[in-house]
Structures are given as structure tokens and as C-alpha cells.
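## Example pair
The file below holds two records. Each record gives the amino-acid sequence first, followed by its C-alpha cell line.
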Amino acid sequence: MDTAELFRSATTAIRTNKTRSFLTTLGIIIGVASVILLVSIGTGLQEFVTKQFQDLGSNLLFVAPGKVNISSGGGPPISTEAKFTFDDVKEIGTMGPPITAAFGSIIRPSTAKYLNKTYDTTVAGVSGQYGKIRNLKAQTGVFINDAMVERSQRSVVLGPKVVEKLFRIGENPLGKEIDISGQKVKVVGVAEAKGGGLGGGTGDIDSYSYMPVTAAQKIFGIRRPASMAVEVDNTENIGRATDMLKKYFERHNLTTDDYTILEPKEILAQINTFLGAVTVALSGIAAISLVVGGIGIANIMLVSVTERTREIGLRKALGATNRDILMQFLIESVLLSVLGGGIGIALGWGFSVLISQFIQTAVTPTSVIMAFGISAAVGVLSGFLPALRAARLDPITALRWE
């Protein structure tokens, strides 16, 4: 039997038993779709995090309160205040090259209210340079600037999701007064949508509200910043700037347990390592269904061999060799598996596109090739023993099979 005849025989057997063929491939479909989807979510999150840190720039140092062990994912809550003060931030900003500026910020979860509507937001009290550092702009109105900070102006720039929840569709929020933590503040701008966040609520940058840091200090009664960003003239001087900060804090009686100096690339590397491990673990769990699918194919192929014993005997009596019978059943198994893999890839890709409306996802060629390769391998492994059994049947015994 030539190869074309073997493929025709296998495809005929699959078409003849459509329902059984579909149920046989169901485990492969679910497994491949799950792997594609989970890998796309993990890859999308890594791309999102990488973009956020790229927006920050590579010439920044972050000073966090307390001892932060980023390798274990530890860190203080956003309400923790540093032992350094805003006066320290101001003094550090004037130390001179390679340090060009320093900015303190306040982060507080709060509730924004307008008329009878409320929304849980995260208020960021920021400096006039914060928008430049974080690559944030106002799509309407203005963003927080130095003049607002100097005057302690009670103004706020709302994230697009805050506007969506507090105001009617088409209503202009500019100039309106809203309530934040019991205090009236005036809306002066709406921030550009960043999208691709990790969900709604206080973890989503589009749900932030930005105020001048001096005004936020008064509203929340805060004397110390939650963190500090230090701008360095270029990336080559990051080490010198770090040494300058350490010496400054040492002169002011702060120990290494009181603060942690972080570089964006260090944080990014640790986060990507963590996300990569999570993606691999989730993909491994999803791959279990591929094993189950392989067992299903093996079981069905064994049943098929039993049902088609007389057919096998007849083929052998007409001259088919053991190799022909082996290849016929092996091709049938691989076709079932690859068919399931193709459907699984399409479903996984489709669900990934659907979920991308809420969180960032990314289907990579590597994940598609890997899923397709695994499905083909499952077909070979699960179909080999049944095919071998069929090939070894004695033709006389097979022809007598009832």
C-alpha cells in the first residue's frame, strides 16, 4: 500500500465514525487550548510589565521604605511611610551630578464621590515632574504641574475609568468638584488611557487619581512620602548615584533596614522571572489534559483494532504487510491528534483575543508550534501500541473473528 492509500484509509475511518472521532480528540482540544491560553496570558503580562518599566526609563532609582526583598516578592503596603521626609527629598534633589532631581510621592486608596456616585480609586500625590517620569499625559485638560504643587492646589487629574464610573456618558468632568476622603477637589484633567492593566479597581493604572503631592499631604494628614524617585543624568552613573544616596542616609542615621534602593531593571528581572515560573507551572497543569487526551486516543484505537479485526485479516490476505497495517493505524492516530491540536489552537487563540479586552495577552509563534508539536507527539505515542497490536494479528485468526 502506498502512502496516499494509507492516508485515504485513515481519513475514511475517521469520517465514518465522526462522533467517536470528535470525542476521542476532545481531550487534546481542551489541553492544547488551555496551554495556548495560559501561555498567552503569561506572555501578555510580561509584555505589559516590561512596557511599564520601559516607560519609567532606565535612568531612575526608586527609594522604597523599609527592607524590600524583591527576589521573594516582599515589600511594604502602599500605605507605608518612609523614615525619610519631604525635606530629605528636596535636599537629595539639589545634591548635584549625577543626581539631577528627586521626587517624593504619596499613594493612598480612597473613595471618590460625585453627586450620588462613588468609586474606589487610588490617589497618587505627585510632583510636577511625575507625568514626565511616568510618561503620563492628560487627554483633556492638564496634568499636575509644578505651579499646582507650589500652591498646594486642591486639584485632581482622574483616570479614564474613574471618569467612566462617576460621570454620565458625554458629560465633561473638567471644572467639576468631587469629594475625595471628605475633601472637595476640582477636576482639572483626565489622564490618557494606558489600558492592558491587570484588572479593575486599585490595581489598574486607569483607575488612579492624581493630585499635587502638597495637597495630598494636607488631605490625608501625611508628613512623609511613601516613596522617592531619583533621576540620574545617565545610566552609566547609576552606581555613583546609589553610593551618594547611601552616604546621605548614613549621615542622617538611617540604616539599610530603613530603606531600599531599587533599579527598574532589577525589579523587572525579578518580576519576569516570577511570571515566567507561574506561566510554566500553569502550562504544566494544563498539559495534564493532553496526557488524558492521549490515553483517550489509545483506548479508542485499541477498541478500533478489536472492531476491525476482520478488516485487518482481509487486508493481510490481499497482500498488506505488517508495516502497512502499522502505518495505517498510526496515521489514523496522528491525524486524530493533529486535528484536535488544530482545533485547540484555534480555540485557545480565540479565547486569548476575547480575554485581551480585559487584560493584555499575546499568542506567540513558539507556543503555537509547541502545542502543535505536542499534539502530534501524543498521536504517535498513544497510537503506536494499538497500531503494533493490529500489525501483529495473524490473518487466519483475524478472518475467523466474530
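Second record, same layout:
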Amino acid sequence: MTPSTPTPDLTTQWKSARRLYPIYFEIAREFVIDVKPLHDLEAANDTPGKEAVEQANQWLDQMDQLILVHQLRQFLQTSSLVDQESIVAMVQHFLAKPTKTEAVRDKIDFLLVQHFSQFAPVGVADAEVDLAYVAHALEPILGQFDLKQPVWLNALDRILEAARRCKSLDELLHGGILDQGRKAKTQAGDLFYLPVALAAFTRFGYLMRRAFFRLMLGDLNLILDGLTELEEKGVETIDCRRAQFSAEEPIMRLRMICQSWKVMFQAEYSSGSPLRMLVDIRASVEHALGRGKADAPVAKAAAPAMTQTAAPKPAAGAPAAKPAINGKPVAKPAAKAAAAAASAGGGKTTAEPVPVPNGEPAPGSEPAEFEISGAPGWDPDATEKKS
């Protein structure tokens, strides 16, 4: 049975609804969700009746069903409309639900990690982020509670240790570690909502994300170094079809894409299409350098793995050529999104990565949860599903 949360009084419910209403309405606008405005909440009436509160709760419940987890995550990580108090109100809103679905659980999980990530100072070491440290940060939401951790939560530490031993993003994404994390969350059942469990899973999500960022930045740097080495050898293009690009993808374009991802991944935290694409680009670069193995379909293709005379470099400021396979443009959404990120502003990134110690994004700007998203362009059942 789900641990009970006291039902707030009408005044508290109304204040919460008024705080969440503009956020939810903006999410609906951004993701083109068809929803009617609620005039009582827009009027900002401070003394509502019971009927008005019930209508507000019904409106929020409807929005909770329409807004998907990845939409909430994307919006909260990129919008200036949401402050710390709004996150607290949103967590309390979900915790007060009498019936908590898997989607509600995932939203609570994300929001708690988002809250903690904004609390944690820059440069805090992993070893410092113990259960007591996290519990202190979550006190405005969970209050004070017994820090004695149940034995079944020890599995989270074993998963974190396995993540720390990973040497590449590919190893993390496809080594079964994420499956173990999802399994731990699912097997927790209603015990997930015990305060000590919520704190433990918040710590787990935060530290998993840090492991992810270390590996992601390491892969990006290895790709960029590999591209530089290829350029020094006079190579201009490489076979990058495994990453949904062309058989003769310009190195200059790959470099711009990787630089743009350094910025993008500080605002969006998901390991859907772009991360799998990043893994495949690294594999393509290593193969071009003679350090890796090609996929079977790519190895049998007629196109060369790398060439010095293929596509010419684009002129400065000109849009990069669209990737093509057998003379036809690639239509994969993920590849098109990556290309758009690279070509925005005349092929230049519009922002520089936020400088932080040890190459990690600052807590206020880095995404808040390690989660597989069902991003378009990839089959979410092929490797990972949403955690």
C-alpha cells in the first residue's frame, strides 16, 4: 500500500493550483496539448469555494494525464518560468495523489533529482553525497525522517559502483546497468514513496547522472581528438552511416555537431537518439582511424570508410550538405535534429559550454535525471526503455 500523504486543506490546494497553473498551461502551449483555460485560476481569486478548488484539481489531474514525463523534464530544464518553490509544489502535488501510476512515480523521481541538483553546490564530491546530505536537501519536501536505510536499497550502491567502472558511454547504455536501475525502481513498488527510499533514489539518480556526464564528455572529447587526427592525415570525410549520417560525412560537420552537443546536453537530459548517435559516431571515428570494427552492413557496403577526395568542405557560413545514402537524403529525425543543431547560426554553435570544475556542468544548468527517453527516430524497445 502506498505510504499515505495528508490531504492538504482547501486553501493549500488552491495556492498549489495557482502556482502550477501557469506552468502547466505553458507546457500545453509548448507541446501543442489541447486544453481549455480555467478562468477561476486565471482570475487569481484568493478566496475560492469548494467547487472552484475541485474544478482546479480536476483540471490539474487532466493535465497530469496529458503531459508526458519527457515533456515535463524538457520544459523544466529549459524554462525560466519554474523556480525552486514551483518544483517543491509540483512534487507535493504528485505525492498527494491517492493513486500513483508509473508515470507519476517517474515524475516524482525526476522532480526530486531536479530539486537536489539545484541544491548541491558546484564541486561537491560524489563521496560527500551520502543519504544524510540528500535528506537535508529534501527536508522542505519530505520533512525529517529516519535515515536507517532498508537492506533492499543497498542494490542502488552496487549499481552506482558498476556505473563508475564504465569506460565509455556505450558500456553504460548497453551493459545492463540501466536495466538494473529500472528494475530496482519497479521492484520497490509502493515502498518507493517511503521518505528514506525517495532520498535514496534521488541520490542514485543524481550520482548516475554525474557518471553519465563524465562518460558523455569523455566520448565527445575522444571524438573531437579523433577528428583532429584524421584531419591531420588529410582525411575530409568518413563513413558515418551507422550514426544515421552519410557514407562520406564531412569531418567539419561532425565537429560542429559534437561541439553543439556539448551545449545541448547541459539543457536536455535524456539518453534517446542523440546519445546513441554519439556512441555510433565514436565507433565510426575509431573505425576510420583503424581502431575499431565496422558494423556488418557498413563493412559490406561499397562506399569507402574514409576518403580524401569526397565531398568538398562547405564554404564559410554556408549550410552543411544534407547527409545522403545512395544519393538520397537521410530522413531520420535524430540525424536531422543533430544537423540542425550544428548548422544553426550559419553552422556555428550559439553558445559555449558552461565552464565547470572537472568538466562537469554546473548543478543549476545540468539535467537532473538519468533516464532513457522514447525519443523519435529510435526504437525504444531495441536497447533501453524509460527508467
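Notes on the second record: The two ends are 22 Å apart (CA to CA). Residues 213-359 form one domain.
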